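Re: duplicated header lines in exported structure tokens

Our pipeline writes sequence and tokens for each protein into one text file. With two proteins the header for the second block appears twice in some exports. Here is an export where it did not happen, for reference. First protein block:
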Amino acid sequence: MSFYTSLNGLKNAQTDLNVISHNIANSETTGFKKSHTQFADIVAGGALANPKLIQGIGSRLEAISQNFSQGALQQTGSALDLAISGDGFFNTVSATSGQTFYTRNGAFALDGNGNVQDGSNNILQVFPTDATGAITSTTLSNCTIPATDVAGAQFAGLTVADDGKVTASYDDGTNIVVGCVAVASFLSPNGLRQLGSSNWAATGISGAASYGQPNTGKFGALMSGTLERSNVDIAEELVGLITAQRNFQANAKAIDTASQISQTVINLRT
């Protein structure tokens, strides 16, 4: 039995090492959120067993939980580098597949069609607004910047306010609010499914997204010219890495000890 108990320990230690290694590898990934492993013990005993005689038979992986705490904010100076100070996610939609993504990575840029997108052809979603910036609908739309205004003036620049309003400027001095960045919130963000590239998708565990304007209610404020760095603490991860390594070594030693005892018993009987 000790062989299988220690084997479970080895597998769990390997999983712990994998998760920590993944965190360290993404310590410089914009918008990345670290994960940690949770284990639970296993006992062998039925309903009628004497509770004083129930024996533990190892541990099992219970969950790999994500930590959505705020990462450090880094100033970049680019108007389309956006960060959420507080709770919430940017909402993007793939221009090719139509799939919806949620992300904390606000490194956006304009493409040739005037779409504000993340470099993977996923377009930022906004609330439609009127000329004064008032939200006119809760149905999200692509954040697209017209190349010219109604007078034919050429696009000159873009600003994003902390309340999410995206304003396009033109060379005749005209300013037009083209939308308000929508921030998504979830009842259980730990239930979001990781998709890679700092993107997540909603699941039945996370619940459906609710949307709101930045800097209102439970939705965080928007910061232009800023990116959110990974929330990985390298020192903390290195300590965890050493602990997981020692755990792996201890379980391997337990298997070796059990093997020696078994060999001794075999030798005595022969």
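Second protein block, exported in the same file:
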Amino acid sequence: MRSDLKDKRTYSARRLTASFRFAGNGLKMAFREPNMRIHLAAGAIVSAAGFILSLSRMEWCILILVIAGMLALETVNTAIEKTVDLVTEEYKPLAGMAKDLAAGAVLLFACAAVIIGMIIFIPKL
């Protein structure tokens, strides 16, 4: 095996630390986005309701997965939008489609999250 390939596969504490730092920077950037703040606020409200209504462990697991999934998907949507903006400043139909598709994925997951929330919370009210 070539030594330069082996070096690329070697993971050091420094590389791991740098990876976490880059991920943290990405989250900081994502949390500055208005839509991410809306999702964070919704997640906080739903979490508070979960505490008030004493959710079961399984309900909490589902709720955490849905909130984390929503935040992760919004982060990916933002990354796609930033990448498209980097590639072109002029309107291009394919660029618009990429942005719309990513936003559509977020909307689809948000609708599913609302339905899951209703399944969890309505019986407790």
